Structure formats: C-alpha cells, structure tokens
Amino acid sequence: MEPQKNGTPNAVTMANETPKKVCVTGGTGFLGSWMIKRLLEDGYSVNATVRLDPERKRDISYITNLPGAAERLRVFDADLDKPEMFAPAVEGCVGVFHTAHPLDFAEKESEEVKLKRVTAAMKGILQTCADSKTVRRVVYTASISSAAFDPANTGLIDEDSWTDVELVRSLKAFGGHYIVTKAVTEKAAIELAAELGLDFVSVIPTWITGPFICPNFPESVYVSMALILGDKGHYQHLKESSLVHVDDVARAHIHLFEYPEAKGRYIVAAEQFEIGELSDFLSVKYPQYKMPSPDSWKDVAAVKFSGLSTKKLEATGFKYENGLGEMFDGAIKSCKERGFIN
Ligand SMILES: NC(=O)c1ccc[n+]([C@@H]2O[C@H](COP(=O)([O-])OP(=O)(O)OC[C@H]3O[C@@H](n4cnc5c(N)ncnc54)[C@H](OP(=O)(O)O)[C@@H]3O)[C@@H](O)[C@H]2O)c1
Predict the structure, then answer these.
(1) Is the pLDDT of residue 5 over 50?
(2) 40: which residues sit within 8 A by CB, 6+ positions away?
(3) Residue 19 has what pLDDT?
(4) Within 6 Å (CB) of ligand 1, which residues are found?
(5) Which intervals hold domain NAD-dependent epimerase/dehydratase (predicted)?
(6) CA–CA distance, 80 with 191 (Å, rounded to integer)
(7) Cα separation, 333 vs 342, whole angstroms
(8) Is 291 inside a domain boundary?
C-alpha cells in the first residue's frame, strides 16, 4: 500500500470525516482487527494504528479491504516505543479503544523493557486523549490476567480482584511478563485517568477465541484449540478456564463506550468450564478431532481462569451472543482457511 501525502505526518489512508470517529490502537491484532470490522459495521469511522515497516510494505489489506473501510477507515503508523506517534490517530476522535499490547509469550525481551514500553505508551496516549478535548471516553483492553492472580481470591474473581505481581513473579508462570505488564499498566492507567479527569473504562476479557481475520494464528485461539491440536503444554490453561467469542469482546468494548453510566472495570467471559467438559463438548461436536485421554491432563496443575463474576457487565444490559459452538465453529473455520489445521 502506498502512503498518501495528506498533511498528517504518519497518516497512511485517508477517508471522509464523520462525527462518530473513534481510534483503535493495535489495529492489526486479532482483537484490534475484529474491533475495526465491528465498528465499521456499526457505522463508526475508525482511525486505526498499526506498526508499519519502513518501506510500508506490510500487507494490511485484511483491514483496509473490510466493508466500509474505503470510506471510513484511516490507518496510522504508530509504535508503542514512540507514544507521540499516536497523537494524529487520536485527533478528532470521540473515543479511543487502546488494545495494542505485546503478546510476547516467548519472552525475548525483559519484563522491565516491556513494562517501560507499555506504561510510557499508555501515559502518552491518555495525555493525548485528555489534551484532545474531543475524546469523551477511553476504553482500555485489560486482561483477566490482571485480576486472576489475587491472593485474596476465595473462589470468585470480580472487578475488585487485583493480581499480585510479586506472586506472579515468584510463580515464574508461563506468560509471566505479560501478566505483570497487563496488571501494572491497567492499575497505572486507572490512576492516571483519574488525575487527568478522563472518563476511562477497563474491559477485562478472559481467553478470547473464535474466527479471525488477521493472517497469523492468534495466541489465544491456539490456546483454546490445545485439545484439538494435542498441545499438552496448554492443558494447564484449559483445566479450569473460560472463553469468550471475539465478537462478544468487540461488542462489549463498543457497548461500554456507548453506555453512559459505564464506570471502572468489567470482566468479559461467556463460558466457564473444566477441561473434561470442554473435551466432551468438542468430541461430540467435532468427532473428526480425536480428544486426548483424561490421563494426559490429570496431573497438570491448573492456571485458573474460572470462578469469574460477569454480573457487572450483564447488569448494564449486555448480552453474550455466542457460546462454545460459535467460538469453535469460527476458530476451526479460520484455521482451516489458513491451513493451520486440516
Ligand atoms: N487474546 C486474548 O485472549 C486476550 C485476553 C485478554 C486481553 N487481551 C488483550 O487484548 C489486546 C489484543 O490482544 P490480541 O489477542 O489481539 O493480540 P495480538 O493479536 O498480538 O494483537 C496485539 C496488537 O498489539 C500490537 N503491538 C504489539 N506491540 C506493539 C508495539 N510495540 N507498538 C505498536 N503496536 C504493538 C500488535 O501489532 P503488530 O501486529 O505489529 O504486532 C497487535 O496489533 C491486548 O491488549 C491483550 O492484552 C487479549
């Protein structure tokens, strides 16, 4: 895609302005790209931030070819390492959905480097929103990771639960850096938004799965498919777990942007289960995929993502539209289309 010269230094795609304009950071991601799709379908104009290579050769046609994109999507180059790059994308927007976050489970960089990057970017983006005078609410994509590791948890995780980052560090859990960066960033964002007088809402999704339009195999879809893929390393994440369909997560973000009384944090989780129940469900619905024997997970210690209270979101009138059937139908279809599974 050729960058267009349009007076905005890093604006790549230009389209008509409308008053219902919002910004989505991380527009190339699994959730970000689906958010763009949903927002365009709902009539919004979207300023999406993406990371472009210096030659601007990255193929982002899966978002720029979406229905409505030619008229209502503008794409901006922005990297979390340079928070000032997000300002042109926020300009003139009434809402900002901040989803961009590194999901580097391989932990190639140190926790310190990642933490510095995401918190500095979050601060820059919130300051830009406060300065804009147009942004009326920021909706931040947090994660159940920032609530689930609460030592005070007595079996129910709700919006008052907070992950203890020292506990996570001591556990040396898979994705530990991610869990810490999400928890620290969300807390710091809530505090800074209060200082700046910004209307700020956190969306706290559990594992997201379902169909995807991005070209890669999204990490969380991969985890949700671990029984189908036979990847024992992730049985720990499904043992006592929960899932939510990507479209319900996108809808929850938009609902919480539009719902006037939205305040604070909202857990988003549609289905909670034990691994045996998930295995039974998958074996009946998709007999072509042979499920592993229960012996293969019996000694696996659960990384618990169940026992979640979703009452606060439901009390706002939000309704989940997708269950496990829609999640796995969508995920399997997208995986097959890309040749990730047979
Ligand atoms: N998927 C889940 O189960 C789940 C659950 C709870 C919360 N979340 C949250 O949802 C959000 C989206 O996650 P996802 O599953 O959609 O992951 P994803 O597909 O990896 O998307 C992450 C997005 O962040 C962008 N990003 C990463 N590092 C960046 C940087 N340095 N500068 C600019 N952009 C950067 C990525 O850009 P590139 O394409 O250039 O890498 C991508 O667009 C994240 O905040 C995540 O914490 C996800």
Answers:
(1) no
(2) 46, 66, 67, 68, 69, 72, 73
(3) 55
(4) 26, 28-32, 51, 79-81, 99-103, 141, 143, 182, 205, 207-208, 218, 220
(5) 22-265
(6) 20
(7) 10
(8) yes
Residue 229 belongs to some domain of the structure: yes
Nearest to 76 by CA among 27, 140, 129: 27
Distance 30 CA to ligand 1 centre (A): 7
**The pLDDT of residue 14:** 41
CA–centroid distance, 87 to ligand 1, in Å, is: 19
Residue 69 lies in a domain: no
Tens of pLDDT, residues 10-48: 444 444 444 599 999 999 999 999 999 999 999 999 999
Task: Residue 143: name the closest of 190, 110, 185, 200 by CA.
Answer: 185
Residue 24 lies in a domain: no
Q: Looking at the 3D structure of the chain, how many domains does it have?
A: 1
